[in-house]
Sequence to fold (631 residues):
Amino acid sequence: MISLAAAAAGGQPLVSAIATMSKFFGIAASIAVVGVLLAGGFLLEDRNGELSPAALALKRVATLAAAVWAAAAALNIWVSVADILGSSMGAALDPTIIRSFITQITLGQYMFFQLLVAIFVLVCTTRLRRVGGTVLLLIATLIGILAPVFQSHSASSGSHPLAIGSLCIHVVAISLWIGGIFALAVMDPGARALAIPRFSQLALWTAIAVVVSGSANALTRLNFLDAWTSSYAYVVIAKIVLTGVLIYFGFQQRRNISRENSAVINLAKFSKIVSIELIIMITAVALGSWLSFNPPPAAPSTGEFDPALSIAGLPMPQAPNLTRLIFSYDPDALFIGLLVLASALYIRGIIILKKRGDEWPKMRTTMFFVGILLIDYATSGGYGVYSHFAFSYHMVAHMILGMIAPIFLILSAPITLALRTLPIGRTRDERGVRGTLIAALHSRLTRFWVNPVVALLIFDGSLFGLYFTSLFGGMMQSHIGHFAMDVHFLLSGLLFFHVIIGVDPNPRKVPHLVRVVILFAAMSIHAFFSVALMSSSGLVDGGYFASLQRPWLTDLLADQRQGGAIGWAMGEIPILLALVATFILWVRDDSRETRRIDRNTERLAAMGRPDELAEYNAYLAALAERDRRGT
Ligand code: HEM
Fold:
């Protein structure tokens, strides 16, 4: 695998300068795209789901920025080839070489993916009309920005999950923070007053994320004393100072914005501070681009080659035992970031309800945090760590993510909390964030996903697609693959249990009988999958676990079969619990329905009106009689 570090080591000053420059323009342009899409999809008014005139006016800015991004992404590929080959830019402009770089070298593949996303965004920005499409394009842009990060320095550091994860959070938070400020600077001044309060909240969250993620990332590289005398460390320190200044101006801005009455914002002062902030941010981005292209100081090596470190991104742990399974912890920064964000949003919802004088059931809050802790344990905790090294431990982590944590999260009713607390429209025509969520919940796409058969196919069918093809081995090899697999386990579990035992609103009313049938189907398919694994004669990991040269649990096939047995045991129990819960819900709903009919009969009787149900039955009987007499 060739990383940017190796490229930079090529050591041609001109090529390195071009590389840092094209990286800078690529990042700056992509941040401008993020800013405009963020403004259209979240900060500016939406007119019943349509973009407002102020947002439409920014489309040209997005298209121009996307064009610069695409050009810089193409230049990044070219200059990386020159640097890796140690050749001149001219010599590197060879179609065969470039084709093999973007098709066979992981770094090249990620860079080419970013180029394709930039071109896609460029085309789509010209057609933007609706808020929903703008939000989806914003997500696509962030994915495109993140792609090369998975092959940056962080991919060669001592702890992939922490280094890569923290840099991803850093890049997303920077993009939203700077992008938002850029959008405020270029948008129609008349529309600013509405956008500023909402951005001010977002700016606080992103600033915190930038500082925490940047510090975490810096610590994975500067984790020995001598490192702090390197030019890399000096640039990091400079960035910390700049961030301090940025936060000072951020507070000035907040003081200038009285949340209660956004109309009184001193726009002149606001614009002055914005231009200062933008200059500092551009400087910080330039320094960040330099950092991302120049290798961090090399840590003193033990001289021993650890295959696990280069393949799994973590040093080989000692043989597992109860203590290590309970107390091992290797932070997966991406998952931790998502869990912290989800927890912050959930707590914010509860606080809003409390302020309104409404209570939120404590049991639901408990369920939520049990779910969050289980996910953290299965990704960063003991089983999260050992899941990189042995199939049986991978299966335990899989079952916690796919079968156990989702049940707790589903029963914590996050959608209900969101619907009760998300902001409504700020103007008469605006649908508001809550309106957007309701529209999404009732969309055809959501109706497709919550179809019980679709949920079952994703939940159980995908197991065969993953483990009985080369996909599993491929996903285990890379950090993004491992992360995507864990996210898939979690989302497919959340979808399945939402459809079966969910307490949140569901656009589809799934009859209890259908739920029971789906659960029985899930049990049998899962049992069949586990038995297939337990009786497999070949390894399903494509040689991944063997390549780690694990000194413990050396019988790989036995460990895989053990994984099958664990999958069976841990998989069936939650489905069984869901079955019991479904029967209880069924009985409860039936008795509730009976009580409703009884109450209705009594109400009608009290009003001297015939009981509708009795009347209807009499009508059916008359029909039957008529048919019998053939008249
Ligand atoms: C506490 C403050 C901060 C610290 C400790 C910090 C640290 C870091 C570190 C260690 C990297 C990784 C470089 C590498 O790949 O080797 C990085 C990347 C970067 N930082 Fe920061 N940073 C901070 C604040 C900021 C701010 C405020 C900005 C912009 C406004 C910024 C912009 C960037 C950019 C653009 C990158 C390159 C990302 C990429 O690879 O695509 N950073 N930072």
Remarks:
- Confidence is low (pLDDT under 50) at residues 1-10.
- The longest helix spans residues 556-606.
- The radius of gyration is 28 Å.
